[in-house]
Amino acid sequence: MPTTSPLVLGHRGASGYLPEHTLAAYELAARQGADHLELDLVPTRDGVLVARHENNIWGTTDVADHPELAARRRRAVVDGKELDGIFTEDLTLEELRTLRARERLPGLRSTEHDGQWPVPTFPEIIDLRARLSEELGRTIGLYVELKHPTHLAAAGLPIEERMLADLDAGGLLSEGDRDAVWVQCFEPGSLRTMRERLGSPLRQVLLATAVDDVPADLVAAGEERTYAELLSPEGLADLDGVLDGVGPSKTMVLPWTADGALGEPTSLVGDAHAAGLAVHAWTFRAENRFLPVPLRSTGEDGAPGPEDALGDLAGEVRAYLEAGVDGIFTDHPDLVVQAVRDPDGAAGG
Prior knowledge:
Blueprint: E1 7-11, H1 23-31, E2 36-43, E3 49-51, E4 74-78, E5 81-85, H2 93-96, H3 122-136, E6 141-146, H4 149-154, H5 160-169, E7 181-185, H6 188-197, E8 203-208, H7 216-220, H8 227-230, H9 233-238, E9 245-248, H10 268-274, E10 278-284, H11 313-322, E11 327-330, H12 333-341
Parallel strand pairs: 1-2, 1-11, 2-6, 6-7, 7-8, 8-9, 9-10, 10-11
Antiparallel strand pairs: 2-3, 4-5
Domain GP-PDE: 6-340
Keywords: Glycerol metabolism, Hydrolase, Signal
Family: Belongs to the glycerophosphoryl diester phosphodiesterase family.
């Protein structure tokens, strides 16, 4: 159901400040006021769930600097895309633990923290959540994404049951504690498996990319339903009982106009709310590169500012709050917390 207070969701932790999917980034997000820590799960070869945005770790770790792992490099098709790199399912946890995280966007964000932290396991993140909840005196939630479930199941590494087992071991499936967890996925079939076959009591969100994209599990099954169709009133009715929310890319809520400004809201928020579903939009980042043109910062002469300069993220967030979204995925939790608490911009922007 829609929430009464917009949730601030620390996207891969406070990934605007520290390398994504590290314990340090998650901790910073919590200390900046995020309600939930958003993380993506993929498995190692020996079945341990770890936090990476994708199973190809070439761009977010120092694996290229490890000659002992060079023979693992290969090309693979994942969700219809041909990739070149080293994949988590080809490494044991012991091997993965020799690596260190790196900044995903080195041309845009600082690399001074590269090489400091290992890739965390899901149980380590669950333990961190418990410690921070106690220390900060509030419940820190987890917002967990199942990555590439169809691809990984075909490789003999289904992740749904592994995720539930880790949550159960951490006490997060018990009544009273399960509300701290949301589960998200781009593949509706995985969420249906979670709810109908595995009996998951957790709240579930269908993520959605561009309106014309088709989920990977539907492509594998020979179906052609797009995300736009799945998020239509008819599509949401078909998923009744499976979903508690939807997670659209932000332009599915407020499309950009031809000149790069925010356009008029689509019907998505109203359709989802009419179906009793929350809407959590992604991803909100403060750098000019990611902002609508009118909200980008400029130089002293009024010329466009550099793409790594910070613009008016609060202004963008306020527009989405006015459109009715219930949650904001962000790389910069501190800035979004301020915008959510000060929706009229009285504190400045």
